[in-house]
């Protein structure tokens, strides 16, 4: 084996991954923060060579593992892992791309249809007896044929765009770099994109590079008839500005699967019928989560065998 040493499980993982980590690799589980964790790290920290995580690892924890050589992340997004701390020590990182692309894209389109056509709001209307009482449900907005902007045209963004083409939508996008092999119109900035579409779908990575990319100005450009869908990370949107825009009617509506400080959702949003609130379930299907767990295990197996990863993250 390239590395010997302890395999550490950091936070809860998919049951398949947890079972296999214990059964095949005798992995140890990091205790929750507190005295027990301190004692655990003092005893086992020096021997840990690989960490497998879903919730992430901060610089302090990485610093407590002097022999750490690899971090295997369950999830395509790795913004909760302190990559600066990894980079400076040459620790390698893997994530779980591709296997979740379809499910996240499905949820993005589902969120768009929900917020524009009032699926969740209509369900609430029926359940509380308003329909039976003779009340009228407000007219909604058409989805087919609308103009949709994709913020972040990576794997998931392309899968969203592909689905929207079937709805006859006009897709445009903004991305760090213009993408050569697509025919969608490119907008030079998020504000320019938001100003030219009926709905904006956020599918960028999280982290420092995209913090509050969807600013108050972007929300204003989207406007009172505009809709926002976020299946990326809460940090990509200025959440205070979003709450203000939704509460004041300056933004038409939003479908949100991610939030700034999960699982906390701003109270102000609970009363708004034009907001769809989801508990971070983009990848959360039986099929996709199993595939993510298998990819985590394949990364671990490969790293222990030859020091390489199946789906490495380029940490430049
Ligand atoms: C979570 C996700 O990571 O892949 C991502 O980036 O946001 C999700 O799949 C999932 O909760 C696993 O921890």
UniProtKB/TrEMBL annotation:
Keyword NAD on entry: yes
Every D-isomer specific 2-hydroxyacid dehydrogenase NAD-binding domain range: 111-282
PROSITE patterns linked to this entry: D_2_HYDROXYACID_DH_1 (PS00065)
GO terms for MF: glyoxylate reductase (NADPH) activity; hydroxypyruvate reductase [NAD(P)H] activity; NAD binding
GO CC term (a single one): cytosol
CDD domains assigned: HPPR
The entry's keywords: NAD, NADP, Oxidoreductase
Lineage: superkingdom: Bacteria
D-isomer specific 2-hydroxyacid dehydrogenase catalytic domain location: 49-313
PANTHER family xrefs: 2-HYDROXYACID DEHYDROGENASE YGL185C-RELATED (PTHR10996:SF178), 2-HYDROXYACID DEHYDROGENASE-RELATED (PTHR10996)
Family: Belongs to the D-isomer specific 2-hydroxyacid dehydrogenase family.
UniProt-recorded name of the protein: 2-hydroxyacid dehydrogenase
């Amino acid at each position: 084996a390239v590395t010997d040493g302890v395999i550490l499980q950091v936070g809860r993982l998919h049951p398949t991954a947890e079972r296999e980590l214990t059964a095949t690799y005798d992995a140890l589980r990091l205790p929750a923060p507190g005295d027990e964790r301190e004692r655990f790290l003092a005893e086992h920290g020096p021997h840990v060579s690989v960490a497998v995580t879903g919730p992430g690892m901060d610089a302090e924890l990485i610093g407590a593992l002097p022999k750490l050589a690899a971090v295997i992340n369950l999830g395509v997004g790795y913004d909760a892992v302190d990559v600066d701390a990894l980079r400076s020590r040459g620790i390698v990182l893997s994530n779980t791309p591709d296997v979740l692309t379809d499910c996240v894209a499905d949820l993005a389109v589902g969120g768009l249809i929900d917020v524009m056509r009032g699926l969740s709001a209509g369900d609430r209307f029926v359940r509380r007896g308003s329909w039976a009482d003779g009340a009228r449900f407000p007219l909604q907005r058409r989805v087919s044929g609308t103009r949709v902007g994709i913020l972040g045209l990576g794997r998931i963004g392309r899968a969203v765009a592909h689905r929207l083409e079937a709805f006859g939508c006009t897709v445009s996008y903004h991305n760090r770099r213009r993408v050569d092999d697509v025919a969608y119109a490119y907008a030079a900035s998020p504000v320019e994109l938001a100003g030219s579409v009926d709905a904006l779908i956020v599918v960028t990575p999280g982290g420092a590079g995209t913090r509050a990319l969807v600013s108050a100005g972007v929300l204003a450009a989207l406007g009172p008839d505009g809709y926002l869908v976020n299946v990326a990370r809460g940090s990509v949107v200025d959440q205070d500005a979003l709450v203000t825009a939704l509460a004041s009617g300056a933004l038409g509506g939003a479908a949100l699967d991610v939030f700034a400080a999960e699982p906390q959702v701003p109270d102000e949003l609970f009363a708004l019928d034009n907001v769809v609130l989801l508990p971070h379930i983009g990848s959360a299907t039986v099929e996709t989560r199993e595939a993510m767990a298998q990819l985590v295990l394949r990364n671990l197996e490969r790293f222990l065998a030859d020091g390489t990863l199946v789906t490495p993250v380029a940490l430049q």
